[in-house]
Design brief:
Strand content: 15-25%
CATH architecture of the largest domain: 2-Layer Sandwich
Order of helices and strands: HHEHEEHEEHEE
Number of helices: 5
Bound molecules: adenosine-5'-diphosphate, magnesium ion
Largest sheet: 5 strands, mixed
Length: 249
């Protein structure tokens, strides 16, 4: 009887393991097909344009247009590949992080300065609110910058002229919370979790020049700092992305 129970336990453990392996394979499969699709689109555009240009003699202006499209699409391929390499490094190689103590007020002042330039170009207002006291985190400066720039780029991209983007910092003992709030397109409730997945876009691909890996990268960076990113949004009203990080003494 006891042997039976032991055997059943083993069988269950074995089945559970097989199930996990199958799920991992399914993920790898799905991921590969996303990557293939994302790389194929720019290549198809380049091929189509070049083939058309080769069909008959065109004027210089037309050749220039084709070459411009080609360069744009090649740049897009390079961006996708760079972001994929970045994600792989973030998720599988913790050695890439160089942690140091960072004064968040100073750090966010820099981020906001850059944000205000982007906002001005787009006819959007911006602001920064920080507490009186200094707050510190232990973080990798380069990656933390990348995290916030990804959030800021999205906020600017999805906020039409006349809108507003606000960076806000609040601290409560153990945690520091930094939010990037916009008054833009917003996100449907059903898409709220999916936007952090690789290659998911909640809006028309034409409106977004990005690689759709920005939020995956941002979330990986937050997690590598024992932190998290949350989003609140209502469609048509705007979105707020909040990064929580452990405060450094
Ligand atoms: N501030 C925002 N407002 C509205 N939608 C957003 C915002 N940030 C992200 N999203 C949605 O999440 C998707 C994924 O974002 P991201 O990973 O940065 O990819 P990308 O910017 O390249 O499209 C975007 O395509 C968009 O649909
Ligand atoms: Mg983005």
């Amino acid at each position: 009887m006891e042997a039976d129970a032991e055997m059943r336990r083993l069988i269950n453990a074995f089945n559970a393991m097989i199930e996990r392996v199958e799920t991992s394979f399914a993920h790898v499969n799905e991921f590969s097909s996303h990557v293939a699709h994302e790389l194929k689109t720019p290549l198809a555009i380049i091929r189509g344009e070049v083939e058309l240009a080769l069909n008959e003699t065109r004027d210089i202006a037309e050749y220039q247009r084709v070459l411009t499209v080609t360069v744009e699409e090649i740049d897009r391929l390079i961006r996708i590949i760079k972001d994929l390499l970045m994600l792989a490094r973030l998720d599988f190689n913790p050695d890439v992080f160089r942690f140091e103590k960072i004064n968040l007020k100073e750090f966010l002042a820099e981020i906001h300065e850059y944000t205000s330039i982007l906002c001005e170009e787009k006819g959007v207002t911006s602001g920064l609110t920080v507490p009186d006291v200094d707050c510190f985190v232990r973080a990798d400066r380069v990656h933390l910058r990348r995290l916030f720039l990804n959030l800021v780029h999205n906020a600017v991209k999805f906020t039409p002229a006349g809108g507003d983007i606000r960076i806000n910092m609040a601290a409560d003992g153990n945690d520091v919370r930094i939010s990037v709030a916009d008054t833009g397109a917003g996100i449907a409730p059903a898409d709220m979790e999916k936007i952090f997945e690789k290659f998911f876009r909640a809006h028309d691909a034409k409106t977004t020049s990005g690689t759709s890996l920005g939020l995956s990268i941002a979330r990986s960076i937050a997690r590598a700092h024992q932190g998290r990113i949350d989003v609140q949004s209502s469609p048509g009203q705007g979105s707020t992305f909040t990064v929580s990080l452990p405060a450094a003494p």
